[in-house]
Amino acid sequence: MSKTGVIMCRCNGLNDSINFPAIVSKLAGRKEQIPAKIMVLACNPHSFTEIKNFVAEGDVSRLVIAACPSYLKGSYFLHLAHELGIAEQYVELINIREHCAWSLPDELEATERAVNLINMAIEKLKKVKDLGHWQAGKAFINRNKCDKCKRCVDECPNKAIELDGQGYPEVTSKCQRCGVCLGGCPLGVISLPAFRLEEVSAMLGPVSKVKETPVAVGFFCPHACEEADLSVNHGYGYPRNLYVIPVPCTGAVNMILVNDALSMGIDGVVVGGCENSQCQNKKGNEYALRRIKNQQQTMEEMFLEKERLTYMSFGEQYLPTAIIHTDKCSRCQECVSVCPFGAIHYSEVTDTVQVQKKKCRCCGTCASSCRSGAIQLPVTSDREILASIDLLASSGW
Amino acid sequence: MAKKRIIFCRSSECHTQNINLWNIRVDDELRKAEWHEIENCCQNLRSFQHLLEGDVIFVGCGRNVIGNFLLAQVKGRITFADIREEILWQGTEAVQKEKEIGLAIKLAMMQLKFRDSFRELTNYDIFRKNTEEYLSALKHVGPNPFKV
């Protein structure tokens, strides 16, 4: 039988406002007795042997890693799990640093929130099934339940779904795993590697048991997750009664999940994503907004307040943007066509190419395509890279 | 001109404890800077806040670990010399490591001139403001009727 284990990272003291021994004893007290390990720096290469022993001794086949945000050390932990023979879908990474330790100064509150987050991850891992499509790295459509409505074919922003000879949708290798098809499927028969509706629904269980009111669940896209964490880094805490579940894109939020959340007694659902036309998956947020509007109407018909479901974006103005030096610019408008976020436009009135600050994500696509070298990035630049190479070369590197 | 300030984090867990800084500071450029050694920076974030002014080079873990926190505090320019993940956690010899650390610090010092100064951003609290507004609206709406 598969057994879940929990690794908790104290992150060299950064997470010390959490009472880790209390969590260990709570997990040990569960019916299924979940083994847990506290580590000082789980990402330290020297911790590998400790984790290996923990997995071997506890006969652990599914792993919850409670540490810093997944975009920081996530790839390392996934690699580590791979080395231990645990497949990616059986590893759940949760962020207890920004969500608990850094945002809640009270030890009791931080610990309780950490326990809830760990419980959510455990419930998710219980539902993971090996459907054999993870290795393919694309969306999976369960043909046995599909009614051939073709909605996924119409909505896929990458045109990655085609119909086969029998009229069933088939996912091609163009799939970017954005989940927009999954979010729109009325029967919920589409799943992504490590993101199935059944798994996410299971995560809602522990949230519904939180005693505080109101309690809300947030489905946040990776950008919204980062923005929320950045806000915590700047000293603004996380609301303690908002539990965030990361999703690949807001377009991947199926309204089945919203119905599940509300029927379980969760007071509200927040879908957190990008502002209009900023979505990396082209149309994910547009679909999400449309679906939310429809769902709100349905909720009102069911005498449920529409305020319980909302869409939120967090400004997206944290990063400094690309700068276009007008004196160098040749007005070729190459940057306008290559910008993946549609953040650059040409103004005929002023005869200048301008960057819209709200849309720019500072990805650097424009700078690398500019033949005049007129675009400067505040984070890094060609001059900086060349100067670094000079320094390394002069040091005999 | 104000001296560049180097904040060196000493931590046994991160393996920065036993580095001999004398060997690194012999370099002309590095000698000119103002050096501050802090024990476990991540645990004592508030203790060196007064040093985060002017041009600062943080030597220790990468920007991902406490970088965003430091960026929010610094009144000036800051760069990071990630010696923990890139050098100390790699399996090279001690002498080689010291050389690499010196070079990493020099690289970070050089990068300073390409960085923007501190700028006041006012919208970092947008996440908290939006979610708090939403939660108070939820409170006003009342509990979910499906709640058992």
Q: Let me know the number of strands of chain A.
A: 16
What is the helix tally of chain B? Answer: 6
**β-strand amount of chain B:** 15-25%
Cα gyration radius of chain A (Å): 23 Å
Number of helical segments with 4 or more residues of chain A: 14
Write down the domain tally of chain B. 1
Radius of gyration of chain B: 20 Å
Helix content of chain B: 40-55%
Shape of chain A: globular
| Low-confidence residue ranges of chain A | none
CATH topology of the domain at 1-128 in chain A: Rossmann fold
How many beta strands in the DSSP annotation of chain B?
4
Which class do the helix and strand fractions of chain B yield?
alpha/beta
Compute the average pLDDT of chain B. Answer: 85
Q: What pattern of helices and strands is seen along the backbone of chain B?
A: EHHEEHEHHH
> Biggest interface in this structure?
A-B, 61 and 44 residues
Order of helices and strands of chain A: EHEHEHEHHEHEEHEHEHEHEHEEHEEHEH
CATH first level of the domain at 1-128 in chain A: which class? Alpha Beta
Question: Could you explain how this protein is built, in words?
Answer:
The complex is a heterodimer of chains A (397) and B (148). Chain A is of the alpha/beta class and 397 residues long. Among the domains of chain A are: 1-128, Nitrogenase molybdenum iron protein domain (Rossmann fold); 140-191, Alpha-Beta Plaits, CATH 3.30.70; 323-394, Alpha-Beta Plaits. Chain A is built from 14 helices and 16 strands. In chain A, the strands form six sheets. In chain A, strands 2-1-3-4 form a four-stranded parallel β-sheet, sandwiched between helices. In chain A, helix 1 (20-28) packs across helix 5 (107-127) and helix 5 (107-127) runs antiparallel to helix 8. Chain A is globular. With 148 residues, chain B is α/β, with parallel strands linked by helices. Chain B has one domain. Chain B has six helices and four strands; from the N terminus they run E-H-H-E-E-H-E-H-H-H. Chain B has helices spanning 21-25, 28-32, 63-73, 83-88, 94-111, 126-141; strands at 5-10, 34-39, 53-60, 75-82. Chain B has a four-stranded parallel β-sheet, with helices on both faces. In chain B, helix 3 links the parallel strand 3 (53-60) and strand 4 (75-82). Chain B is elongated, with a radius of gyration of 20 Å. The N and C termini of chain B lie far apart (67 Å). The chains are: A alpha/beta (397), B alpha/beta (148).
